[in-house]
Structures are given as structure tokens and as C-alpha cells.
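User: Sequence in, structure out. Go.
Assistant: Echoing your sequence, followed by the C-alpha cells.
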Amino acid sequence: MNDSKLIAAARRARRHARAGYSRFKVGAALATADGVIVSGCNIENASYGLSMCAERVALFKAVSDGHRRFSRMAVVAGPDAPTPPCGACRQLLWEFAGDIEIILANIRRETGRFQLHDLLPLPFDARFFR
């Protein structure tokens, strides 16, 4: 699977975003190790803390469908500047997907690429419980 398909899936997911409060629509697409793409969009509600980021929606959908190994994620937002995952998404991605590549894009072009360890340099994970 190539990166353009992954980015296109994130762009399609973004169209379904429910961002009635922030108006900040995001789509994400997570590639499994065996080539399946699982997408998600952000979903907001009046109790803002209960809203869900696109990255977590895609990750939770993938895990709930039985996927356990991942290679990369594309995140698409509106701004021209790179828009990386929030801290909570970075933490969950680290724990469930490991040091995957994060591809950032907007509706027109790719805006950046990072390894997750560069976005989350000191992760809290299961190593602390051993």
C-alpha cells in the first residue's frame, strides 16, 4: 500500500468529522502491518472532554477489529502548517502501535513526516511496570 492511498483515506474520513464546536475537522487513517487501512474522524459533543480525536477513533476501530500490528498513520487537517496528533493520541498510539511513522497532510498536500518517538520522546509505557 502506498502513502497516497493512506492520505486519501484520511481525507475521506475527514469529510465525516463532527466538529460543530471547534469547526476543526480532522481525518486519520491507520495502516495495519498486513495492508488494511482503518480510518476515523474527530467527533465532538457539548461536553467537550468526551469528544474523540480522529487518531483515537481509527486506532480503537482497528484494535476492536482485531488488528495488533501497524506500520504508519496519516493525519489530515485543514491548516497549511503540519498538524500533529495531540498528546493523548501520541500516548495511545505509542502503546498500541509503537514507533510508527506519522504522515501529516492537509486537503491539498503532505505537510510533514515524523517517527512517533520524535513526537513523544519520553513515553510512559509498560516498561515502568516490569
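User: And one key feature?
Assistant: The chain has a mean pLDDT of 96.
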